[in-house]
Design brief:
The complex is a heterodimer.
Chain A: H1 2-8, H2 11-74, H3 79-89, E1 93-99, E2 104-109, E3 128-130, E4 134-135, E5 141-148, E6 154-160, H4 161-168, E7 177-181, E8 187-190, H5 193-197, H6 204-208, E9 214-219, E10 222-231, E11 236-243, H7 244-296, H8 309-390, H9 398-430, E12 438-441, H10 442-456, E13 461-465, E14 472-475, H11 477-494, E15 500-507, E16 512-518, H12 549-559, E17 563-569, E18 572-579
Parallel strand pairs in A: 13-15
Antiparallel strand pairs in A: 1-2, 1-6, 3-5, 4-5, 5-6, 7-8, 7-11, 9-10, 10-11, 12-14, 15-16, 16-18, 17-18
Helix pairs in contact in A: 2-3, 2-4, 2-7, 7-8, 8-9, 9-12, 10-11, 11-12
Chain B: H1 2-16, E1 23-29, H2 35-48, E2 53-59, H3 64-70, E3 77-80, H4 83-91, E4 98-103, H5 106-109, E5 122-126, H6 133-143, E6 149-154, H7 160-175, E7 178-183, E8 202-205, H8 209-213, H9 215-224, E9 229-231, H10 234-238, E10 243-247, H11 249-264, E11 280-285, H12 286-292, H13 298-303, E12 306-308
Parallel strand pairs in B: 1-2, 1-3, 3-4, 4-5, 6-7, 6-8, 8-9, 9-10, 11-12
Antiparallel strand pairs in B: 10-11
Helix pairs in contact in B: 2-11, 6-7
The chains are: A alpha+beta, B alpha/beta.
């Protein structure tokens, strides 16, 4: 029901309809009560009037009956024909007889040719006696009447009670029901002959009711209005009654038609009312829905602008507000997202800086450790051999002393180279690396370096591939020579014995490419650039060296405007560098 | 909106619903002799103004085949205007209530268990014709005291005949009248009537649909023989009979209309007592008496409810 009401969307209309129905019901109830009361009063008057008329009619009929039979009794002459005349005038007569104290003088029956004499009923001194009621084979109640005369003649009559009634009853109002009851409440005659023939009894309420005015009673669940009149001659009662429902039926029909008309009018008017209410409530529902969507996040689509102008204005204002909120929210979201990105970037930068700082710190530590180590070893040798030479308790032979001194000298040279390398590295990092470039033929450079390179690659083959023709480069031959020596020396360290170390020189558009190939294990992927950092040792010091060679090589190549790198090519490790062409023409 | 339509739809359907066909009250009549009862019944029933009830007379016009056709179907009520009509309808079967208008000797037909409670599907107004046969003979004797010999026209095999003849015989013995009998089975038998009339002082009709439906011919033959004819009711007196003492067919029709209304209102017919005629009337055809040269006792004329001059 509630769902149904909600679907109706016309709650205002329903409220209005309810507000209309309540007074309608009240007015109907009051009208029904008042009109019913008045109607029943009128009906009561009608019943009383009919009862009075019927009572008069019945009394008159009984008077006529008694009068005609009395005249018959008093008539002189042939009693049989007198009885026949009386019977002809009185259709309710079944049988008549005239008698005296001694014998039955005459009889006449409406149905029998030779009827049996009736039981004596009339008594001397009583002009009119009504005897017991009995029923014949057909179920009809038979009244018995006895008349007596002072002359000693008596008349007995048997009368059909229903016929007596039918002679009387012509009810003006077919809604009324009239019946005659005897002193015991049995129905002798009625406007409904069935209840007479069935021997029905009147309700006790009727038998005991007072004979003045109208009264109500209930019988078999039916409320009735009734009027009772005494019929003294028969010691009976005349009852005229009608069911209240039947009496009020015309009024009910009218009120029902009126109420149905009003209800129909309300239903008909409900439609435009419902449409009007819906045109107002639907925008309100839309606004509520939109507000809900805004509360949950964002409005999926602008609200439909329907309904009367005021409702449309409200929806339009809501849509504008929602659009403005949506814009602000988008901006805020963008700003927050940008801020996050920036924070993320900065955080990453800081992280990298920190890593670099830590790496630098670690490099410095490694550097110091390496420098200390590199310096301590030759220093220890120098100190050891110097102390040995200076020992006073040993007389060294001259050749032994010379050997010791050569070792001292070699170690000193080693220290000297290390210090020079360190100085070169420091200058390279500061960008103050001193290169003295001059036009120099490449072939000459290689020719000068070749014996040294060959010595260095002891146990490995050295293969030098160079382009045909002379190539002149503007370079510092000492430094570039150091680079080549450094690279071949480095390759020698890692290349297995018996393999070939190849120096490949090619000329390209952007310059001259120097590549030193070896068949060593190379470096792990991602560490190709690390090997050019000072003191970085890919094998963590398993091979001899200071870890400065490649770093110095990079500084030298950079000082010449070239590039240097390491990668794997065709299963071999390739350390390469490039030098720009040209410069010879200017010399 | 759809809901509203569904709510209004039953109302619209109820408004558009075709009204129920009227309930038929079929009055079955064997022939013209009993048409007056049927017309009185219909007239009174229509006076009641019952809504949705339509009375229709099905007149067989003396044809037994058509009479059986009239007894077919299922109207709300069959109304029969005599014994042959009642028997035809009852033999047709079914459960339709039957209200008869003027059936002689109700108990003898076997359709009614008791007069106060029929118990079956038929009830109505018993015309008392059988019981009143003796009384009619008495009225004839009062009108024409010189009547000593009467020819009784009767239909053998008709249910009320034994009861009526018994009543008649007892009355004849009391009234010192000699009875002669002329059985009629079909309309053709009536043509043998002229040879039977001589030697009688009057002709006497017993309840019979053959005689009633051929009354005109019977009246003609009896009149030609110069004899008075004693009929059943005032309608036969109007048709040429000299005297009748019996229930008015029209009155019985009105009486039965009241009963039919109660049956239509739902009263069970098995509980509805059989009724006696409201009035028993004496009718005398003084014109016929004059034509026949009869001197009617003046006192009887004073008794008569109706005198045809």
């Amino acid at each position: 029901m509630r769902r149904w009401l909600e679907r109706l969307e016309g709650r205002f209309t329903l409220a209005a309809a309810a507000a209309g129905i309540v007074p309608l019901l009240l007015v109907s109830a009051v009208s029904w009560y008042g009109l019913s009361h008045s109607y029943l009063s009128l009906a009561g008057s009608r019943i009383e009037s009919e009862a009075s008329r019927l009572q008069g009619s019945l009394d008159g009929r009984l008077e006529t009956l008694v009068g005609v039979l009395g005249q018959t009794l008093d008539a002189p002459g042939d009693e049989v024909w007198a009885l026949r005349y009386a019977a002809a005038r009185l259709p309710e007569v079944v049988e008549l007889q005239v008698r005296d104290d001694a014998e039955v003088l005459a009889t006449w029956s409406r149905f029998e040719v030779a009827p049996q004499p009736l039981e004596p009923l009339a008594r001397p001194g009583e002009r009119e006696v009504w005897g017991p009621v009995w029923r014949d084979d057909w179920g009809e109640p038979q009244l018995t009447l006895g008349l007596a005369r002072a002359s000693g003649r008596f008349l007995e009559a048997q009368l059909r009670a229903p016929v007596l009634w039918d002679a009387l009853v012509e009810l003006h109002d077919p809604t009324l029901h009239a019946f005659l009851i005897d002193s015991e409440g049995r129905i002798l005659a009625s406007s409904d002959r069935l209840e007479v023939l069935r021997g029905a009894r009147a309700p006790d309420a009727v038998g005991q009711a007072r004979t003045r005015g109208i009264f109500g009673y209930q019988h078999l669940g039916v409320q009735k209005l009734a009027v009772v009149r005494n019929v003294n001659r028969l010691n009976g009662r005349l009852v005229v009654e009608a069911p209240v429902g039947t009496l009020l039926a015309p009024l009910h029909r009218s009120l029902l038609v009126l109420f149905a008309s009003l209800l129909l009018a309300m239903m008909v008017s409900f439609w435009p009312g419902w449409r009007l209410a819906r045109s107002v409530t639907r925008p309100l529902d839309e606004l509520a829905r939109g507000a809900g969507e805004l509360e949950r996040g964002s409005l999926e689509a602008p609200l439909a602008e329907t309904g009367p102008p005021e409702a449309r204005s409200a929806v339009q204002a809501f849509n504008r507000m929602a659009a403005e909120l949506e814009r602000n929210r988008a901006e805020l979201k963008g700003y927050a997202q940008h801020l996050e990105e920036r924070v993320s970037e900065r955080t990453e930068a800081l992280r990298l800086a920190l890593e670099r700082a830590l790496e630098a710190d670690r490099a410095k530590t490694r550097f110091l450790a390496s420098v200390s180590h590199e310096l301590r070893t030759p220093l220890a040798n120098i100190k050891g051999f110097a102390s040995t030479l200076l020992a006073t308790d040993v007389a060294w032979k001259p050749e032994e002393a010379s050997e010791f001194l050569r070792i001292i000298e070699r170690e000193a040279d080693r220290m000297h180279r290390l210090v020079n390398d360190l100085l070169d590295l420091a200058r390279g990092e500061r960008g103050e690396f001193a290169v003295h470039k001059r036009p120099y033929p490449l072939r000459r450079l290689l020719r000068r370096l070749y014996p040294r390179l060959t010595r260095m690659t002891a146990g490995r083959a050295l293969k030098v591939i160079q382009p045909d023709g002379e190539i002149c480069l503007c370079l510092d031959p000492e430094r570039i020579g150091n680079v080549l020596v450094n690279l071949v020396e480095n390759a020698t360290k890692y290349a297995p014995i018996g393999t070939t170390i190849e120096l490949n020189i090619t000329q390209a558009e952007d310059g001259v490419h120097f590549v030193v190939y070896d068949e060593g294990p190379g470096v792990s992927p991602g560490l190709e650039d690390k090997v050019f950092e000072p003191f970085y040792r890919a094998d963590e010091g398993e091979t001899p060296g200071t870890g400065l060679g490649l770093a110095i090589a990079r500084a030298i190549v950079s000082a010449h405007g070239g590039k240097i790198g390491l990668n794997r090519r065709g299963g071999r490790t390739a350390v390469w560098f490039t030098l720009p062409k040209g410069g010879c023409d200017d010399a | 909106m759809r809901r509203l339509v569904w709510l209004l739809l039953p109302l619209l359907l109820a408004a558009c619903r075709p009204s129920a066909p009227p309930r038929e009250v079929r009055v079955v009549v064997s022939g013209p002799g009993r048409l007056a009862r049927a017309e009185a019944f219909v007239e009174r029933l229509e006076d009641y103004g019952l809504v949705g009830v339509q009375a229709r007379i099905c007149d067989a016009g003396g044809d037994r085949g058509r009479l059986r056709e009239c007894a077919k179907g299922s109207p709300a009520i069959f109304v029969t205007v005599g014994g042959v009509e009642t028997r035809t309808v009852m033999e047709a079967g079914g459960q339709v209530p039957v209200v008869y208008v003027g059936l002689a000797a109700s108990l003898d037909w076997g359709y009614v268990e008791r007069l106060s409670r029929p118990g079956g599907r038929t009830s109505g107004v018993d015309n008392n014709y059988a019981e009143l046969s003796g009384k009619r003979l008495q009225m004839l004797k009062l009108a024409l005291p010189e009547v000593d010999r009467v020819l009784v026209l009767y239909q053998p095999g008709v249910v009320p005949t034994p009861r009526g003849l018994d009543s008649l015989k007892r009355a004849a013995a009391l009234l010192d009248i000699e009875l002669d009998y002329f059985p009629v089975v079909s309309g053709a038998d009536i043509e043998g009537l002229p040879s039977e009339l001589p030697g009688n002082d009057a002709a006497f009709l017993m309840p019979s649909f053959v005689l009633e439906n051929n009354l005109e011919r019977v009246v003609e033959i009896v009149s030609e023989a110069g004899l008075p004819l004693v009929g059943l009711d005032a309608a036969q007196v109007h048709a040429g009979a000299f005297l009748a003492y019996g229930a008015s067919g029209a009155a019985m029709g009105r009486q039965a209309a009241r009963m039919a209304r109660q049956v239509l209102g739902g009263y069970p017919i098995s509980e509805m007592p059989v009724e006696r005629p409201q009035r028993v009337e004496l009718a005398v055809n003084q014109a016929a008496a004059k034509r026949l040269g009869l001197r009617v006792d003046r006192r009887l004329l004073d008794l008569a409810d109706e005198v045809v001059w």
